[in-house]
Every structure is written in C-alpha cells, then in structure tokens.
Amino acid sequence: MNAARIGVITFPGSLDDRDAARAITMAGAEAVPLWHADHDLRDVDAVVLPGGFSYGDYLRAGALARFAPLMTEVIAAAGNGLPVLGICNGFQVLCESHLLPGALLPNAGLHFVCRDQRLRIDDAGTAWTADYSTGQEVVIPVKNADGRYAADRETLAELEGEGRVVARYLDLNPNGSLNDIAGIRNEAGNVVGLMPHPEHAVESLTGPSTDGLGFFTSIVKGLVGA
Amino acid sequence: MARVVVDVMLKPEILDPQGRAIAQKLPQLGFDGVTAVRQGKRFEVEIDGEADEAALDRVRKIAETMLANPVIETFDVRVL
C-alpha cells in the first residue's frame, strides 16, 4: 500500500515547513510540499500549516496568510473532513480563517517566549492526537510572540463543554492564554491548532524529547487504517 | 479622491498588555490621573472619487474582511 501523503504549506515567511516535513517522513508518510500561491492541494490526505511569520505577520499574525490563494482550497477541504494541523503560525492562520474559533494575541508578557514546555493532552480523540492517551503529559517546545489564545466567554464555555481543548500548558502559562489553552480542535476533530511545536520534539539530538512525534504518527496511522 | 479613516480597537474584554504597560509608565513621567490606556490601530484608506455612502460601505467591508478581526476587535469608519 502506498504511504499516506501529507502536505506542508510554505507561505512567504514560513520557518518550520522543513522540520514539519521531516517529522512527517519520520512518522512514515510522504511529505508533499505545497505552495501558498497555488490552487492545488496535490491530492494530499492531510495538511500541515507550519510555524513561522507568514507575510511578516503584518496586520495580525496569520491575517494575510488567511487570504493566500491555497487557503481557498484548504478551507473547502477542511469543511469536507480533510485533516488539518496548524502549528504556531499555522494555528494563527486557522483562527484567522475561522476554521477554528477565537484568536491568538501578543503574549501577555510582551516578550517572545522560547522554552521546553510541559503540556497535558486533554483530547486524544482527534485525527492528530489518537496516538496519545487523554491526560498524558508531554514536553514540547513553545516559541512564539503571539500565543495568547483568546475567545469570548460563550466560545470558551463551548470549547470546554465539548472537550475541544486538545492540549493545555502545565507548570506555567507562557503567554497568558485563556484557561492555559495550548491547542484546540474544531467540532468534527479533523482541524487542530497547536501553539507548541511538536515537529521540534521528534529526535533526542535536537529536541527536549520525542514526545511531539505522536501528532504525526497519529495522523499516519489514522490514514493507513482508513 | 477622499481619505477614509478606520480605527480598530481590541474589544473591551480583551487584555491589552501594551496599553497597560503605557499606563503603568505614565506616573513615573509625572502624568497623574490616567486610569487606563487602550492601544489601537488607525488605517487611512485613500479611495477614488467621493466618500459617499457606497464608498463608505466598501471601506466597512474592507474593515470587517481584513483590517479588523471581528472575533477580538471592533472598528469605526469615518471620513477624514
């Protein structure tokens, strides 16, 4: 059987597209490069929006990337169930695209934060977290300037009530995120946004752990089993 | 040609750490009596022709589509 094909979108200003592609390869899938200016998802089985500073984060983080040509296809495909993972800047793009509720604002401390962060996986039921167990604690780096998750009270209550907080910060909250939210999912569970960088925690040589690999093995196993 | 201003502000319930940092600095500079500062963005949009109601509607559409994120921000459109 052919390997699953997982696309990684490169926007102008993406930084972690290669790391994401590498993590995908390590998880046993084929990483397919996608270009923001195309209108072609190249028949991929899932898409990763990587970290970085797309379009310089001008206006708001993710605000201009949301209007990249390829996002038309991503938004349509996500609505039809295509698994989509947005990491850091990718999470910001997904919120700006309204594929996920809420928004990501400048860190409450006004500093860029880069640290190995302990997290708890609060929802192991998504396409991207099935290889974890709910309640599992992991260490994955965060590195962001705009990581403060914000949403109105009703949205927050809905996310909590429906168990749609995928990951939560432990020990300390690096950015003032509401309810210590590090990641959320859409109602269907195919779209996940995550502020920490699992692609930076896939090898002991370069990461604090290999705890991040689970996001990629989750989707690969799900696609192969489908 | 007309110039239309779009003011964008964070919704009141959203924490504005930049505004708060500014407000905290003011007493040290001798400016007393400021209870809060909120920082926003101002856009000046130049348009062809007159700033009639149709043109303002177009700018409002621009504001809600791109200049502001309605999830966290409000905006106000006026002719300069």
TrEMBL record, chain A:
<keyword id="KW-0658">Purine biosynthesis</keyword>
<keyword id="KW-0436">Ligase</keyword>
<dbReference type="InterPro" id="IPR029062">
    <property type="entry name" value="Class_I_gatase-like"/>
</dbReference>
<comment type="pathway">
    <text>Purine metabolism; IMP biosynthesis via de novo pathway; 5-amino-1-(5-phospho-D-ribosyl)imidazole from N(2)-formyl-N(1)-(5-phospho-D-ribosyl)glycinamide: step 1/2.</text>
</comment>
<keyword id="KW-0067">ATP-binding</keyword>
<dbReference type="Pfam" id="PF13507">
    <property type="entry name" value="GATase_5"/>
</dbReference>
<comment type="function">
    <text>Part of the phosphoribosylformylglycinamidine synthase complex involved in the purines biosynthetic pathway. Catalyzes the ATP-dependent conversion of formylglycinamide ribonucleotide (FGAR) and glutamine to yield formylglycinamidine ribonucleotide (FGAM) and glutamate. The FGAM synthase complex is composed of three subunits. PurQ produces an ammonia molecule by converting glutamine to glutamate. PurL transfers the ammonia molecule to FGAR to form FGAM in an ATP-dependent manner.</text>
</comment>
<dbReference type="InterPro" id="IPR010075">
    <property type="entry name" value="PRibForGlyAmidine_synth_PurQ"/>
</dbReference>
<keyword id="KW-0963">Cytoplasm</keyword>
<comment type="subunit">
    <text>Part of the FGAM synthase complex composed of 1 PurL, 1 PurQ and 2 PurS subunits.</text>
</comment>
<keyword id="KW-0315">Glutamine amidotransferase</keyword>
<feature type="active site">
    <location>
        <position position="197"/>
    </location>
</feature>
<feature type="active site" description="Nucleophile">
    <location>
        <position position="88"/>
    </location>
</feature>
<feature type="active site">
    <location>
        <position position="199"/>
    </location>
</feature>
<keyword id="KW-0547">Nucleotide-binding</keyword>
<keyword id="KW-0378">Hydrolase</keyword>
<protein>
    <recommendedName>
        <fullName>Phosphoribosylformylglycinamidine synthase subunit PurQ</fullName>
        <ecNumber>6.3.5.3</ecNumber>
        <ecNumber>3.5.1.2</ecNumber>
    </recommendedName>
</protein>
UniProtKB/TrEMBL annotation, chain B:
<comment type="similarity">
    <text>Belongs to the PurS family.</text>
</comment>
<comment type="pathway">
    <text>Purine metabolism; IMP biosynthesis via de novo pathway; 5-amino-1-(5-phospho-D-ribosyl)imidazole from N(2)-formyl-N(1)-(5-phospho-D-ribosyl)glycinamide: step 1/2.</text>
</comment>
<keyword id="KW-0658">Purine biosynthesis</keyword>
<dbReference type="Pfam" id="PF02700">
    <property type="entry name" value="PurS"/>
</dbReference>
<dbReference type="InterPro" id="IPR036604">
    <property type="entry name" value="PurS-like_sf"/>
</dbReference>
<keyword id="KW-0547">Nucleotide-binding</keyword>
<keyword id="KW-0963">Cytoplasm</keyword>
<keyword id="KW-0067">ATP-binding</keyword>
<protein>
    <recommendedName>
        <fullName>Phosphoribosylformylglycinamidine synthase subunit PurS</fullName>
        <ecNumber>6.3.5.3</ecNumber>
    </recommendedName>
</protein>
<dbReference type="InterPro" id="IPR003850">
    <property type="entry name" value="PurS"/>
</dbReference>
<dbReference type="GO" id="GO:0004642">
    <property type="term" value="F:phosphoribosylformylglycinamidine synthase activity"/>
</dbReference>
<comment type="function">
    <text>Part of the phosphoribosylformylglycinamidine synthase complex involved in the purines biosynthetic pathway. Catalyzes the ATP-dependent conversion of formylglycinamide ribonucleotide (FGAR) and glutamine to yield formylglycinamidine ribonucleotide (FGAM) and glutamate. The FGAM synthase complex is composed of three subunits. PurQ produces an ammonia molecule by converting glutamine to glutamate. PurL transfers the ammonia molecule to FGAR to form FGAM in an ATP-dependent manner.</text>
</comment>
<keyword id="KW-0436">Ligase</keyword>
<comment type="subunit">
    <text>Part of the FGAM synthase complex composed of 1 PurL, 1 PurQ and 2 PurS subunits.</text>
</comment>
